[in-house]
Amino acid sequence: MSQQPAPNATAPKEGPPPESMTPDAEAEAPHLDFQGTTPYEDYVQASVLTHLQHPLSDDPGEMVFLVTTQVMELWFTVIVHEWHTAAQALREDDLPTAMAALKRSTYELESLNSSWKPLAHLTPGQFNAYRSALGDGSGFQSAMYRRMEFLLGEKSASMLVPHRGAPRVHAELEKALTEPSLYDEVLRFLARRGFAVPAAVLERDPALRYAPDPGVERVWQEIYSGPGPREDELTRLGEALTEVAELVWRWRNDHLVATRRAMGAKTGTGGSAGVAWLEKRATKNVFPELWTARSHV
Ligand code: HEM
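That is the input. Now the predicted structure with protoporphyrin IX containing FE docked in place:
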């Protein structure tokens, strides 16, 4: 955001620069005077962001648990934005815009996954120090994570139930449930490009969980086997989606392992069986046919 002074290409390599070449310290210093809040604050709203941390216990280790969760919520928000952009672009047959958004989302997923570091080695004792203060609160109730899952095709109307008391969040989730997922848009796009995506898949109810289809597997098999430029381009799309799928799977696994370390086989604060429940969630394949088609190429 701040402007870097241009490098002085003519400065001598050794000794002090002549008087005439000394940078005018005052002219190059950043602005200090602003009428109201700084433009940085107006844009970033850092004072809002850095006053949203209200730990529920006295344990000093709770702060990083809370902030990591907030950081992940922000990454979920960016990733949902990228996948929306990609889905919209595919709807308009604009592959380059979709590819750029998917690519950005893979870098963001990597940053999201790196955020596990501070929580990945919690001992049960460290976690217990603030766990009871969390009450019934659980990441399971994250609406933005749910939107991510809906965009991936993991739809479930029952996941709206916890949000009945929050009309705006509920409405956003309901919209995300009923509109086509990112993968639905990919398959419709492939159909318009001449691939034999089964009609039952194209006309499916988008509010239902996506179920793997042998016809779709054959489409990916054809794309990955094909020699032509059309197949090359669509293989790159397939690989970008595979990267997304792998990184989501990694997030789920890192979460699972962190949970196993922090609380063993205890039940979760959200009321689930804990690790056993998360293990099942982690076995779900994102974009399933992109994985199974590989056996036939
Ligand atoms: C080491 C710390 C953590 C532990 C021990 C833990 C534990 C759990 C458990 C047991 C569940 C299952 C639902 C339940 O009964 O509560 C769950 C779900 C979930 N947690 Fe965590 N969690 C941790 C950190 C986080 C963080 C930092 C996030 C970031 C937002 C998060 C997001 C989620 C989400 C999104 C789910 C639902 C997953 C799904 O629907 O498949 N968790 N967590």
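The two ends are 48 Å apart (CA to CA).
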